[in-house]
Amino acid sequence: MLVSILLFIVSLSVLVFASDKFVGAAESIGLSFGISPFIIGVTIVAFGTSLPELATSIASVYSGSSEIVIGNVIGSNITNILLVLGMTALVGREIILDFDVMDVDMPLLVLSSFLLVFVISDGEVATLEAMILLAALVTFLYNSLGSSSLDDKVDREKVSLKTYGMLMFGGVFVYLGADFTIQAIKSISGSLGIGEEFIALTAVALGTSLPEVMVSIAAARRGKHAVAVGNVLGSNIFNTYAVMGIPALLGDLVIPAGYMSFEGPFMIFATLIFAFMCMSRRISKWEGITLLLLYVFFFGELIHKLP
Q1: Residue ranges covered by each domain of the chain
Q2: Better-scored residue on pLDDT, 260 or 32
Q3: pTM higher than 0.90, yes or no?
Q4: Is the CATH number of domain 2-305 3.30.70.360?
Q5: pLDDT of res. 270
Q6: How many helices (H) and strands (E) does the chain have?
C-alpha cells in the first residue's frame, strides 16, 4: 500500500513537472510567432496544462480502467473553476478582466458543459459522439486563432533547438508519468476497496490540476489576468472535448452510474457560477473564497457518497 502511494506521488509529480516543461516550451514557441498572451493562455497554455488529464485518460483506456476518464474530466473541470480560480482570486486579491470573455469564449464553455452531460446521459460515449466532441474542439481552436491576428507588439523570442528538445522531453515524460499514475490508482483503489472513479474525481483531478494552479496564480501575481482566466476557460474546454473525445476513439468508455445525479449537474452549476462572476469583468477576493467553499462542499459530498 505504501509503495503504491509513493508510486502515485512520484509519478504524478513527474507528470506535472513534465507538463510544466512542455507548456514553457510551447509558450516560447507561440511568442516567437507573435501570438498574443490571451490567445496563448486560452489555447497553447490551456492545452499544455490539460496534458496530464489527457495522458492519464488515454493510459486508463489502454489499462482497462476507462471509468477513470469521466471522473478525471468532470473532477478536473470542477477543480479548475472552484479551486484554481478561487485560489487565483484570493492570492491576487481580485481578477480584472480587460476583455469581453462573455462574447464568445464563455458561451462556448457553458455549451461544452451541457454537451458533455448530454453525451454521458445514456451511460456511454459513442464513436459519433466522440467525433462531434473533437469537431467542437477544432471549431473552438479555429475561432480563437482565426479571430486574432499576429500581435506585432509581442516581444518575439528567438527559439533555439533546445526549446524544441524540451517540448519533446516534456511530451515523453508526460506519457510515462501518466502510465505509472494509472497503475498506482488501480493498486490503491484495490487495497482500499473503493472505486477508481472516486480517486479520479479527487486525487487525480487535484493532482492533474496543479499545472493550472501554478500557471494561473503566477499569471495573477504578474498582473496577467487574461492568461489566468484564459487558462481555466481553455483548459475546461480542452478537457471536455479532447480528454473525452480522444480516449473514446481509442476504446469503449465506462460511465459509472450516478454521474447524472450529482457530479454532472454540479459541473454545470460551477460553470454557470463562473460565467455569472465574469459578467462584471472582475472576480473579487470574496468571490474567490466562495468558490473555495463550494469546492470543500463538493469534496465533502464525494466522501459522503462512499459506501
Answers
A1: 2-305
A2: 260
A3: no
A4: no
A5: 94
A6: 16, 2
